[in-house]
Amino acid sequence: MPTASRLHAALVALSIAALAPQAAAQAVINIPINNIDSGDLLGSGFNPVLIITLPAASAVTRIGWNLKQTAYTPSWLSEMAIQLSDSPVTSAFSIRPSSTGASGTELNILALTSLSSLGIPNLLLPNGQLRLEFYETFDDFPLGPDGIWAGTIPITGEVESYITIEYIPTPTTLAPFTLAALTLTRRRRA
Known about the structure:
With 190 residues, the chain is of the alpha+beta class. The chain contains two helices and eleven strands, in the order H-E-E-E-E-E-E-E-E-E-E-E-H. Strand 5 (80-86) and strand 6 form a beta hairpin.
């Protein structure tokens, strides 16, 4: 086999590997949510925001949580929300772990679940920045927090609160090989 043909075969093999099923490239991380206030409407500059850095061009495909939340009277647990988005915000979805229309403290758990089964498209993160904004859907206390994520529960032992996400890094690292293989194939036929 001539050297150019071997190079072409190697480049095609690498290209196919880059486009292979992405299951092996999936990663799962737990994002700790500890004593974060929930106070203002979405977009307020007073809302706590976490930025999590993932590999560039990742896609969040699944989400789960183990979240302890406390809503102060008269605020409701169901008003506490978290928006997950890219940064800067061009694509986003929000979660409201509780459906309780009352104040109090709850532990809400959701096993790792695909976004598509929740009716949410995968969240693409072009620069790898995952942004979490903690907010209220109704602001009962304009000058203070309406609740807290991972607030104190008067029982023995603290429950660790976290959001779990599964993401897939987009296989862009082998893209130059794909282009080289296509260019070599094109030149050969010419």
